[in-house]
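Why does residue order matter? Because the sequence determines the fold. Keep that principle in mind as you read this record.
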Amino acid sequence: MVLLIGSAPDAVQAKDWDLSVFVQRVAINNAWQITPDWDYLVYPEDFASERLPPTPLKPSQQLIAAPEFVPQQNNFGGFVYAGGTMAFTAGYWALGALKPDLMAFLGCDMVYDAALGESSHFYGQGTPDPLRVDVTLQSLEAKSARFMALAQSRDCAVVNLSELPESRLLFPRVARRDVTTPSMRQQLLQAQNALIDPAAVARALQAERDLGYMVPSGRYWEHTAEFDKRKLSDIDTLWLQAITTDQAVTLR
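Structure:
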């Protein structure tokens, strides 16, 4: 069972949690600052070196950069289809490298409401990376649907522990206490299966293969002129059709 911690303001609640219930704890970008009890830190090429945790790290801790996560991402179809933002990149890396039976996301809702006058990240104002103009991020909801479907194919349930009223993730919402027992994790996997249409998933994956947008280096932004925005949007639509979005699994 894996916990992924992002940088949304509500991620700080992990400070007060007993994180030992998770087999592995994955911090994304600056989220290592929230708790010392992280095992992996996943960060992109342009992450400032001064924002990395001080060394030496604990023996149990490991930094995960492009040389580690790009091959895993390619195994799941590549960045163009997965969505080029770190919540999904870290998720696919964990799915491939750690092979969990459940993956819980916290602080990864990708909702930024400047009108509220609140901090966008737990450390203050930051850049809303998932909202940048990027051909791979036309629908964050579709990218989350894709992730859940591919996790399901590997017998991994995916849930959102956030208590925020909004989220761009379509993962079922559950309370932290409800992911701690093997029987509940099996129930979540079965419930997730009911949300996914296998035939629609097959159509979406076939559309990806037919389009053939793969950048093995992971540096897809160097090739954006080669990508058809409309065709990628059509694939997003297929992924949205593959998932029941009524969030029928909500355990609080």
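Residues 247-252 have pLDDT under 50 and may be disordered.
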